[in-house]
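sry for the spam today, last one i promise. struct tokens for design, 104 residues
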């Protein structure tokens, strides 16, 4: 049996998705093309930190994570992202968490 490298022991699929179709979300990080996005150069920016978009699809990855297809408004790119890479726009809980992380 092979060792699969997982970045978390949490299995999100045991619960309902955090985001739903049509939710307006914001990227928590810059995402660059790793070579899997057609028509873009490797390393080209697909979305910037703080860029907003809408959830247009929900899939899974490694039978562990939900992957949210987000269509970003500014660039028009559709990017697959994990829960930890996104936040709801206008969500007070997310805003408090982001502010706590910013305070030393």
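last one done:
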């Amino acid at each position: 049996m092979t060792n699969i490298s997982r970045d978390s022991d949490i299995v999100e699929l045991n619960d309902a998705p955090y985001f739903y179709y049509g939710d307006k979300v914001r990227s928590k990080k810059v995402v660059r093309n790793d070579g899997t996005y057609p028509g873009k150069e490797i390393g080209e920016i697909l979305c910037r930190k703080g860029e907003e978009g809408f959830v247009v699809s929900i899939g899974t990855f490694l039978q562990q994570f939900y992957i949210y297809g987000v269509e970003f408004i500014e660039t028009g790119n559709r990017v697959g992202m994990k829960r930890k890479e996104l936040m709801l726009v206008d969500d007070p809980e997310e805003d408090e968490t982001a502010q706590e992380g910013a305070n030393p």
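The longest strand covers residues 52-61. ok im logging off now
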